Automatic annotation (TrEMBL):
InterPro entries: Aminotrans_IV, Aminotrans_IV_CS, Aminotransferase-like, B_amino_transII, BCAT-like_C, BCAT-like_N, BCAT_family. Keywords: Amino-acid biosynthesis, Aminotransferase, Branched-chain amino acid biosynthesis, Pyridoxal phosphate, Transferase. The modification N6-(pyridoxal phosphate)lysine is found at K234. It comes from the Eukaryota. PANTHER family: AMINO ACID AMINOTRANSFERASE, BRANCHED-CHAIN-AMINO-ACID AMINOTRANSFERASE. Its cofactor is pyridoxal 5'-phosphate. One of its GO terms (biological process) is branched-chain amino acid biosynthetic process. Pathway: Amino-acid biosynthesis; L-leucine biosynthesis; L-leucine from 3-methyl-2-oxobutanoate: step 4/4; Amino-acid biosynthesis; L-isoleucine biosynthesis; L-isoleucine from 2-oxobutanoate: step 4/4; Amino-acid biosynthesis; L-valine biosynthesis; L-valine from pyruvate: step 4/4. Gene3D superfamilies: 3.30.470.10, D-amino Acid Aminotransferase, subunit A, domain 2. Its EC number is 2.6.1.42. This is Branched-chain-amino-acid aminotransferase. It is an enzyme of class 2 (transferase).
Length: 387
């Protein structure tokens, strides 16, 4: 249960003064689903489209900065998700026997809203996140929102938190959709109720290195995923297990951990939270999504862009021994973008890679960033404008 649900009249006072009547009507529809409406304790003053939240955008990192609103919708077993509601960002109540708390029945997604120089706000391929959540929900025996519902909810969350979208070139608004088994369950079984929730936070660089090259450590003692497991879906239970290896690596001065396959320990899989690519000459290779590797949306986009630019891209088994022959290595992900890797240490041997100007990594990063920010024409229809 959300403790503070926003009434339509209160929410309207918080929206930009230039917001259209149609936008009000869209947001107003959510108010019909409010279970416990109550007035806002401290309404913020109205603001215009030109106003921003009081944030030092130049010092923005990748940490949680709570924004004004979150989106929430519920669904009982055997039913479909209906329209949700926008509520003040805040804590939620869960039963101690909620499926997500007892059995880890939960998924999450990540995408970003970008503010362009012309003031327009856009999302990058949000339908792909909705598709991935739906696939993950099927694997985890969960109800899931439709793709249209998913994208519509993202747009409403962006609109409600528009003043938190950084100025052009200063970052983006990171959106975190969650799908949680919130219904109570004692025996091991699917939860009887599910909650779809989206919250947001302005962010910039994911790694503390910023745009500088990463230095990775190849992990041999811990696995990220196993065959026929859930490594290929974005379930919450995939992420806590990487923390021990990641923490140990960071204490030794590494940026993150690169995992090997659990069966042979001979092939590359993923970094803790992003996909990996190696490049030599005009050939780029990345581990195939064979059931243990997450099908990243940035990964998919980078593959397509690289092929458009004349590179040969192979999705295949990539042996750890190939690291010694690579010219470049880079990571991809919603949070990290296209991040260069400067070095990888494997069995106490450090391998260094080309980074900086003129690299494949920079070419691909500049292209995908340009499409997102509007400096490069979007010929693929990837960008969705938030009305």
């Amino acid at each position: 249960m959300i403790r503070s649900t926003v009434s339509f009249s209160s929410f309207r006072r918080l929206l930009p003064q230039t917001t259209s009547a149609s936008a009000f009507s869209k947001i107003g529809t959510y108010n019909r689903f409010a279970s416990q409406p109550c007035p806002l304790e401290s309404p913020n003053p109205t603001y215009s489209d030109e106003d921003y939240a009081d944030v030092n955008w130049d010092n923005l990192g990748f940490g949680l900065m709570p924004t004004d609103y979150m989106y929430i919708s519920k669904c009982c077993e055997g039913q479909s998700f209906g329209e949700g509601q926008l509520s003040r960002y805040g804590n939620i109540e869960l039963s101690p026997s909620a499926g997500v708390l007892n059995y880890g029945q939960g998924l999450f997604e990540g995408t970003k809203a970008h503010r362009r120089e012309n003031g327009r706000v856009v999302l990058f391929r949000p339908e792909q996140n909705g598709i991935r959540m739906k696939i993950g929900a099927e694997r985890m025996c969960m109800a899931s929102p439709s793709i249209d519902h998913f994208v519509h909810a993202l747009k409403q969350t962006v609109l409600a938190n528009k003043r938190w979208i950084p100025p052009p070139g200063k970052g983006s608004l990171y959106l975190r959709p969650l799908l949680l088994g919130t219904g109570p369950v004692l025996g091991l079984a699917p939860a009887p109720e599910y909650t779809f929730l989206i919250y947001a936070s302005p962010v910039r660089n994911y790694f503390k290195e910023g745009s500088a090259a990463l230095n990775l450590h190849v992990e041999e003692n811990f696995d990220r995923a196993s065959r026929r497991g859930t490594g290929n879906v974005k379930t919450i239970s995939n992420y806590a297990p990487v923390l021990m290896a990641q923490t140990k690596a960071k204490k030794r001065g590494f940026s993150d951990v690169l995992y090997l396959d659990s069966a042979t320990k001979q092939n590359l899989e993923e970094v803790s939270s992003c996909n990996i690519f190696i490049a030599k000459g005009k050939c780029i290779a990345t581990p195939a999504t064979n059931g243990t590797i997450l099908s990243g949306i940035t990964r998919k986009s980078v593959i397509e862009i690289a092929r458009d630019h004349g590179y040969q891209v192979e999705e295949r088994t990539v042996g750890v021994d190939e690291l010694a022959e690579a010219d470049e290595v880079f990571c991809t992900g919603t949070a990290v973008g296209v991040a260069p890797v400067g070095s990888i240490t494997y069995q106490n041997k450090r391998m260094d890679y080309i980074t900086g100007s003129g690299t494949i990594c920079q070419e691909l990063n500049d292209t995908i960033s340009g499409i997102q920010t509007g400096t490069i024409e979007d010929k693929k229809g990837w960008m969705i404008e938030v009305d």
